[in-house]
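Let us work through a complete example step by step.
Step 1: write down the sequence.
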Amino acid sequence: MKVNNCIKNLLKFICVLQQNSNELTFSSTNCTKPFLGPSIQGVCYNTRVITLYNKFGDLFTTNFYFNNELRNSSYFRVRDVDDNCCTLEILESINNTYTYTGQTIVVNINCICAVKCIEDVYINCWKEV
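Step 2: predict the structure and record it as tokens.
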């Protein structure tokens, strides 16, 4: 199966940005801007929050458990891109604040038809997996 290079290249780009987000950055406003962060505030961000859509235009969501409670989310952070697979870290949004759930999901890039960049943020409750 042929890999969706448009989506793959975008996800790889976002992944590299996040891996190199140790320096202060300033921003513009689209998915392909070459750095993470808001405007002139000078805050260092480490995550570009994204949502994904399938070929039918449906928002991709996944379930995860938190304190033995089943929840769902459609917000993700790109962790890795390899061949036609993308490992995503599941984020939870509570009151417009994103937190890492400690859980990941692997998706087939060929099943993704659209990526929407929500915003750049700093995930302050980062957990190494």
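Step 3: interpret the result. The helical segments are 5-19.
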